[in-house]
Amino acid sequence: MHYDARTREHGLKHDPFKALVAPRPIGWIGSLDAQGRANLAPYSFFNAVGDRPPMVMFSSGGHKDSLRNIAATGEFTCSLATWALRDAMNLSSAAVAPQVDEFALAGLQRAPSRFVAAPRVAASPAALECRLWKMLPLPAPAGHADAAYTVVFGEVIGVYIDDAYIRDGIVQTGAMRPIARMGYMEYAAVSPEAVFSLNRPLASADGLGAERPAEWDGVYR
Prior knowledge:
mainly beta; Pnp Oxidase, Chain A; seven-stranded antiparallel β-sheet; three-stranded antiparallel β-sheet; globular
């Protein structure tokens, strides 16, 4: 099949776009409002966009609590959503009233951050502490201005990692079993068995070809 994404006339039961751009990391965003009340919400339009300096982004459809809080305070956290925390992550996505603390709603303990005021999920094996860089509104679909997305870019100024997942100076991401969003109501989980390595190829001497890479030598290029 081939369809016009602008009109969404695909003839399927549901829009397949998010099922194709998958899996997507989940940004489990913690924030505080101007009165110091905590908020926690997962966002599936999330990713890292640079590492020098480390930068992340997430995109919010509509003007949700996270967006208002970050605009007011200029900071947020992003805790890693994992297989063990999948039910709590899902509960925290409920569209409850702004004054509701989703940490408490989902039965999660807060942990204080070191570089920002916003808390992180204590049970999560890793978290990023972020300072707002920029908010970028995206074009709204015709006739649906209230459904427009806003992209939030944050500079990562602090990183928390549970020492139990560091071995020989390498973070064991697979052992954390992070989960990711697929399409519809589907998710995926990373496991140690699913992780594999591919070393980067080297360009040939004349720059016109590439040499097949050898096994990783431990040097990050």
